[in-house]
Design a protein that fits this description.
CATH architecture: 3-Layer(aba) Sandwich
Largest sheet: 10 strands, mixed
Oligomer: single chain
Radius of gyration: 20 Å
Helix content: 25-40%
Structural class: alpha/beta
Strand content: 15-25%
Order of helices and strands: HHEHEEHEHHHEHEHEHEEEEEEE
Mean pLDDT: 82
CATH topology: Rossmann fold
Number of domains: 1
Number of strands: 14
Distance between the termini: 41 Å
CATH class: Alpha Beta
Number of helices: 10
Length: 324
C-alpha cells in the first residue's frame, strides 16, 4: 500500500477548504471538552505535568545512550496507554522490536512487575522456582489483554510504514500505535542518517493522514562522552544535537524526551541531587508546550521508572525551563 501520490490532480482534488478545516478544529475541541477525544496519560505525574498528555497524531521520540533506560521507559509508556485508557477493541499497537527478540520485551515486563532481574528469570544456572514461574505466567495473562503485535526482524522504513497503513485500513475503528525500538536498526540506505530520515518522514505521513501515534526510540551519538576529563563526563544534559539524524528528528517530532542516567558516569551528584538511581528526562522539544528537564528515579535492574522523591528546584516536578 503506497503512502505517497505524485499526481498533482489528485493532490489538488484532495485539498480541503478553510471552512472544512475550521469545522474539524471545532469538533476536536468539543471532543476534548466532552472527554471523548483520544488523550493518554502516563503513570508519572511529573511527565504528565510536563507534556500534558499524548494525543492522536503525535510523534514521540525517546532518546538516550545505551543503558539509559529508554526501552524500559517506552515499555511502561505503552503499557500505560493500553491499560489505563484502551481496550482491545479500540486500539492496536504495532511494536517493531528491532533491537531484541520480542520475548525479551515480555521478560522485561515480567521483571518490572515482580522485581526480579531479567537475567535471573532466564537463568538455567539458578532457575526460578515453580511458584515464581506461575506468578510470571499470571502477569503474561494480563499482558495478553494488550492488543499489541510484534515484529522483531529489521525492516525498511517503507515496509514499516506500509504495514502500519495497512493496519489502519484493515481496522478503521481502532487507534493505531507504532512503536520502533530503535530507529538506527531499520534497513535501507547505506547511510544511517538517510534511513532514519525516511523513518520519521513516513511517520509524519502516518501522523497527518491517519492520526497514528508513533513512539520512536533513538540512540544518541557519542558527543556527550567526548569530554577528555572523565570527572566531568555526564555532567550535562543531552540535547537534540546529540541524537542520530538530529535534524530530521527535530523537524518531525512532536515531542522529544532525552533520557540521561548520570550514575553511568560515576557521578555522585547531578543538578544538586543524589545521582543514585536518578533519571533525568530532558523534554528538549514539545511543539505546543513546555520544554525543560524532569528528575525521576529508576530501579534500573527491574526496568522501573517512578516519580521519586527528588527535591526539585521549581514547582510541578520541573527542574528548569528553557527560554521561550
Amino acid at each position: 500500500m503506497a503512502l505517497r501520490s505524485n499526481n498533482p490532480n489528485s493532490v489538488l482534488d484532495s485539498m480541503r477548504s478553510m471552512s472544512d478545516v475550521v469545522d474539524e478544529a471545532n469538533v476536536k475541541i468539543q471532543e476534548a471538552i466532552d472527554g471523548t477525544r483520544d488523550s493518554y496519560i502516563t503513570r508519572w505525574q511529573k511527565v504528565n505535568d510536563a507534556i500534558e498528555s499524548i494525543q492522536e497524531g503525535e510523534i514521540i521520540v525517546i532518546g538516550g545512550r545505551p543503558g539509559s533506560g529508554k526501552s524500559a521507559f517506552a515499555n511502561l509508556l505503552v503499557q500505560d496507554i493500553f491499560n489505563k485508557h484502551l481496550n482491545p477493541y479500540d486500539s492496536m499497537g504495532l511494536y517493531f522490536s528491532l533491537e531484541m527478540p520480542a520475548y525479551q520485551q515480555v521478560v522485561r515486563w515480567y521483571s518490572n512487575a515482580h522485581q526480579i532481574e531479567s537475567k535471573k528469570i532466564l537463568s538455567s544456572r539458578n532457575p526460578i522456582d515453580i511458584s515464581t514461574y506461575e506468578s510470571l505466567r499470571g502477569t503474561g495473562t494480563d499482558l495478553e489483554q494488550m492488543n499489541v503485535k510484534f515484529h522483531d526482524v529489521p525492516l525498511h522504513p517503507r515496509a514499516i510504514a506500509n504495514t502500519t497503513a495497512t493496519a489502519v485500513n484493515r481496522y478503521p475503528k481502532k487507534r493505531i500505535f507504532l512503536i520502533v525500538d530503535h530507529s538506527r536498526l531499520v534497513t535501507g540506505s547505506d547511510e544511517e542518517r538517510l534511513r532514519i530520515e525516511e523513518l520519521v518522514g513516513y511517520s509524519q505521513i502516518l501522523k497527518n493522514k491517519y492520526g497514528v501515534i508513533s513512539i520512536l526510540l533513538s540512540q544518541m551519538n557519542r558527543d556527550i562522552e567526548k569530554e577528555r576529563d572523565r570527572t566531568k563526563m555526564g555532567n550535562s544534559l543531552p540535547v537534540m544535537a546529540d541524537l542520530f539524524a538530529a535534524s530530521a528528528m527535530e523537524q518531525y517530532a512532536t515531542t522529544i524526551m532525552l533520557l540521561h542516567r548520570p550514575e553511568m558516569y560515576g557521578l555522585k551528584k547531578f543538578m544538586n541531587q543524589d545521582a543514585k538511581n536518578l533519571l533525568a528526562i530532558n523534554v528538549a522539544k514539545q511543539r505546543a508546550g513546555w520544554t525543560g528537564a524532569v528528575l525521576m528515579r529508576s530501579n534500573f535492574p527491574y526496568y522501573d521508572v517512578h516519580d521519586g522523591n527528588t527535591v526539585l528546584l521549581t514547582e510541578n516536578g520541573y527542574v528548569f525551563r528553557f527560554a521561550d
